[in-house]
Every structure is written in structure tokens, then in C-alpha cells.
Amino acid sequence: MVTAYVGLGSNLDHPPRQIALAIAALKNEPGIRSLRVSSCYRNPPFDGSEQPDYCNAVAGLETTLKARELFAACQRIEQAQGRIRDAVRWGPRPLDLDLLLYGDCVSQVPELILPHPGLAQRPFVLYPLLELDPDLVVPGWGPVSELAARCDGSQLERIPLDGSSLT
After folding, report:
1. Domain assignment of residue 166, yes or no
2. Which residues constitute the domain of residue 65?
3. What element of type H or E holds 36?
């Protein structure tokens, strides 16, 4: 078993529902055990573009899947929920699943960079990771607590997964 962390994000088609559906799909994926999920956070788009706010969370899981198999499972779940990959980077989407960490694996293969390359600059990833495991050490970058302390989380708003705070 390997401990992995998956970032979940959505800003289209009722984002909290999209996150809840993705969590259910991850729980049903063969090879995934003991799924834990952070709180859900509302935040503005990372790049400051004009689009709806995002709903983000992180799932921590134990898995027997290899990193590439888990990554492929995440992409299948995205597609099943209407994700269409196009040339617009950081554009609006019904669902985005990012494999953030896979054990202590460090990979620079273009198809799967681990830890996720943007992890250390994204409060909507760091704060949920900190919530799930305050003692987590990100390979090559250090303790998640130190990374989160250097990252401004003032625009994050914890919301219920039912989405009552997110329109």
C-alpha cells in the first residue's frame, strides 16, 4: 500500500456536487482503500482570470495502484463527469483531479511530475493537505506546515460540501 494525495477542483456544474461525485468514484475505484477527504474550500481562480470561483479539496488515500494507474483512474473520473481537455490552461471545468503526491515518489516524466509541480504555491492544495496530515513532508520541498505558512490562504473560505455557500 502507498499513501497518495489527490487534489479535487471544480468551478462548473454545481462544484460541490462534482467534488462529492468524484469522492464517491474514487472510493469505488479498485485498488483504493481508506479514503480521507479534507474540508472543501471556495477560492478565486488561481490565475486571476474571469471565471467562477473554484471549490477545492484534497483526498488522502491508501492504494495498491501504481502512480500511472492512479493518474489514469483520475482522468477517467474527470471524463465521466464531463471534463474535456482543451488548450485553455486553468480554464473553467466541471472537474479537475490532480495526483499531488504518491508516497515519497519524485518523478520528472512529462506525463506525470511528482510531487505536483504547482503544489508549493497553491493555498487551495496546501491548506487541505495540512488539514489531512499536519506532519506530511513533501519530497524535495519539506514539511507541508512550512509550505502552508509561506502561502497566503486569506482568500480560502471553508464551505460545506453540500454547496450552500457556493453558487
Report:
1. no
2. 2-159
3. strand 32-37
For the question of residue 76 being annotated catalytic, the response is no
Annotated catalytic residue 13: no
pLDDT score recorded for residue 86? 66
The amino acid at residue 131 is E
> Which one is catalytic: 47, 76, 98, 162?
98
Examine the residue annotation and report whether 162 is marked as an active-site residue of this protein: no
Given the residues 13, 76, 93, 135, the one annotated as active site: 93
What is the domain count for the chain?
A: 1
**What global pTM score does this model have?**
0.92
CATH number of the domain at 66, please.
Answer: 3.30.70.560
96 in catalytic set: yes
- 3-class SS of residue 4: strand
Beta bridge mates, 43: 54
Q: What percent of the chain has pLDDT over 90?
A: 78
